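Appendix C: a fully annotated inverse folding record. The material below is reproduced so that readers can follow the format used throughout the book. The structure is listed first as tokens, followed by the designed sequence.
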């Protein structure tokens, strides 16, 4: 066996050993990135709690601070006394015995999901981002018009904050919509990655992106674009 091959195999084995430098570095990076304020919430954000994850050491983990209303909003938080990182990618909010109250894994950049058996899924996300999203959602609620590029209004609709499940909200079409929009018949909407998504009960989705004129255009674009305008 050549010396080069021996070195390669040794490096490969080291990368697989728990506690190796690469693993420790990944864990340390995640821990460092979690320091700060986070919003813990139900998926529809109807119940929220601000959690401040601190770098200070605590027995079997690190310290955290829960805002005063957390126990009322999310009763399970009364058992949380600290936090830790388990493995490479699990952020654990734990009790005084270092047992998991809820474990989170990252599903998108800065957004973590955790499941509590019998209760459902909870979200942990950067507080500033969560509040920015909430503000954006509030700005979307109300009456809109669908207009073609020639200025012809073809439909009116109302985006609401009525919970429709799965992070979606109810949308209602007004009477006398264009046949294409009426056939689409959207019943739900949400904001996702900066787009307004309208969804029908059949699983069809229309996506609208903001343009430079503060209008929302159906994508992909067309010669006679469909535009959503706030009323």
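Designed amino acids, in order:
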């Amino acid at each position: 066996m050549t010396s080069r091959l021996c070195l390669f195999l040794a490096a490969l084995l080291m990368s697989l050993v728990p506690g190796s430098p690469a693993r420790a570095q990944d864990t340390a990076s995640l821990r460092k990135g979690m320091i700060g304020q986070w919003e813990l919430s139900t998926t529809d954000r109807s119940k929220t709690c601000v959690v401040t994850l601190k770098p200070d050491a605590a027995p079997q983990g690190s310290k955290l601070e829960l805002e005063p209303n957390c126990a009322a909003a999310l009763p399970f938080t009364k058992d949380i006394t600290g936090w830790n990182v388990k493995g490479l990618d699990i952020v654990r909010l734990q009790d005084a015995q270092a047992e998991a109250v809820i474990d989170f894994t990252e599903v998108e950049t800065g957004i973590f999901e955790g499941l509590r058996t019998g209760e459902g899924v909870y979200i942990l996300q950067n507080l500033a981002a969560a509040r920015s999203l909430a503000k954006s959602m509030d700005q979307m609620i109300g009456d809109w018009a669908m207009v073609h590029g020639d200025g012809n209004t073809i439909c009116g609709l109302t985006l609401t904050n009525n919970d429709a499940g799965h992070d979606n909200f109810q949308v209602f079409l007004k009477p006398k919509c264009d046949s294409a929009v009426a056939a689409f018949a959207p019943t739900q909407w949400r904001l996702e990655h900066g787009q307004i998504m309208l969804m029908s009960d059949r699983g069809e989705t229309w996506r609208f992106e903001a343009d430079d004129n503060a209008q929302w255009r159906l994508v992909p674009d067309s010669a006679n674009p469909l535009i959503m305008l706030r009323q």
